[in-house]
Amino acid sequence: MADTDDVSARHGRYDRRELLRRAGVGAVSIGVAGSGFGHAFYGPLRFKGRWLKGDLSIIQWAHFVPAYDVWFDKTWCVNWGQKNDVQVKVDHILNTLLPARMAAESAAGSGHDLFFNLSPPAQFEDRVIDHAEIVQEVTRKLGKIGIVAKGATYNPRTKKWFAFSDNYVPDPVVWRHDIWNATGLSPNTWDNVRKAAPKLKASGHPLGIGQSAELDSNMALMSFLMCFGAYVQDAQHRVTIKNKRTVEAVKFMADIYKKGETDEIFGWDPSGNNNFLYSGRGSMILNAISATRTPEDKKLPFADQLYISPIPRGPVTRRGFEHVMGCYTIWKFSPNKAAAKKFLADLEINYKQAFVASKFYNFPSWPGAYPFSQIKKVAGQDPHKPHGKYQVLTVIAQKYTVNPGWPGHSNAAFDEMFNKFLIPKMFAQVSQGKMSAADAVSAANHDISAIYSKWRKAGKI
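Request: output the structure for the sequence above.
Response:
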């Protein structure tokens, strides 16, 4: 994914007289139109005639679709801040820096009111508020939360909503139709991917499935495992990685690497597979639609040949994790929890705006915010070729996408395992000939089991 420079956006504060002049008493006093959220938090009429106050600080990633950050910083935050008498400050950092920054703020007991992450931050459950009342308010407005978001942010063991998800991002296969045509195959099954691998590499257009310690490799390889019927944990959050299906999957991917990839896949960061595709060399990657939007924006000569498809079907199923899982958390030490809660509720209730601003990248965590039927219609009107290419995202999001940790919930153990990149390590050790598949799976099982044992003793799973 294409990285952007660090950005810091700071928006001005307006006094009450100016707010009244701009919006009128009625519009301002209720916040974003139709939210009515102040009363839900603080009891009947407690805030009637009063306003939220103070500063609201937010930290989040530099979005891989830059248009989203422009909308969020300069439209959404400005308008919301004016309507709620709150000065909103947004800091953007690279996605790779978010986990360390979150750990630092937790340790210091000081930081931003709202912290955004790209995967469920369950390890910090004891350091954040229970986000249940935000979930309840949004559910009252929009209907049930989506199953992907619930599985990613709710701990059934502790009964706590340890995060609030505003969006999730489908993870399709992005492939060069013109290059694949020469193979007589399409990447609709993993068997086809393996068959096409030597032809693609010989043509100078290898495959790009990462096996490095980074987010994209993590998501792609765990999705690949699920297609073979292999999972890190089961529905009861017991470690299940050590089995013959995992061994089969690791051997299969090592074969794809040897026949159709290059050593660069072991050293990628999250921008690696994107840049590989943008260079014109790559024939296929697993990534979100930033991988197609950037070539469109840059008018690369092959942009119209970039097709989007669901993850290839494996010998057991076709299933994958979302590409990234948008998760906001409010620290227990946040000085402005009231504004943070209302900000999140208003954002999700109005998420149609965010979806459009993200160029179809961010799917709302509540289907009621923008129903799939409407998304499909809007996606079909996208002007880029091939016509209707983005409509398949609704199928991927609805039918093939599950939460991190599926068939269980995301939890602190899965979070720690995920951020230690143990799954990419397992695959890479076999592809690079350092370990046999059986030994690599056993080693991964040993490390993962130790993590799960620690968090089970802590009462989090």
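The chain has a mean pLDDT of 90.
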